[in-house]
Amino acid sequence: MLEQFVLFIFQLLVILALAPLLNGLIKKLKAFFQIRKGPPLFQSYHDLLKLMRKDSVVSENTSWLFNVVPVISFASVLSAGLMIPIFTTALPFGFAGDLIAVVYLFALARFSIALAALDTGSSFGGMGASREMFIASLVEPAMILSIFAVAINVGTTNIGFISTDVLSQGITALSPSHLLAFVAFFIISIAETGRLPVDNPATHLELTMVHEAMILEYSGKQLAVIELGVMMKQLLVFSLLCNIFFPWGISSGLNAGIVASIIVFSVKILVLGICMAIVESTTAKWRLFRLPDLMSISLMLAFLAVVFSIIMRGE
Fold this sequence. Notes:
Layout: H1 2-33, H2 43-52, H3 64-81, H4 99-119, H5 123-154, H6 159-169, H7 176-192, H8 211-214, H9 220-245, H10 258-281, H11 291-314
């Protein structure tokens, strides 16, 4: 019981500490590839602290929903983080949920922010909420299907068990279905984290805003909570990407290898951050109605991965 409590607190602190660092790292890498100086690596921490010191300005047209949404979205993402392997497969909330629970907790955070955007009565908020729901309808089926391709061989959708099984298989786990599912999930991670070419997290242009349009009315402490939740979601999506498809180096509990596991996890996240920065630096923002083409590619790859998994299991 004590070990589970320590694991709960430790994973909580790791998620909260590393999420802003990953965000700053991607910004720094993008600036490097674009031959710019860019913001300091720890700028995200400074931005959050600056927002936490400010009061929130709330429109008189909003209801109680506008005030509770930052807490709901933050709690949803944080709860999902306790079901996702970060540095160990012994998850704090592993008994309480699995892949489907994680996807729907992400969906709850997205849906609540979209409702708050509509609650403000702002045309920008309504536009951003509509676009976000359109993208979500394309992303969520492909996300579930790509992880199902790996879960078929394990016989469960518990993410900790999936990582443990892939880890035990060693290099033999890198089958065609596994690699197809990885590519599909990488495309999904671009959309799920609001990166180019799906969305531009640095823009405030009316015609291209998606996520930024939904949170345009937030300020101060409320905006800080939402922004931290978005950073945490980005870290968790990357964690799914590296610890489901390439879980080597992850620990099985609070043992002597926990420090090495955190170091290996940090290296994996660094590699994914570099890949994401390269994609964003070499890709322009796509028109909204071209996004189904990109998402259909990921969905088709995930479907092929499932078919290959079924065929290989039948053999």
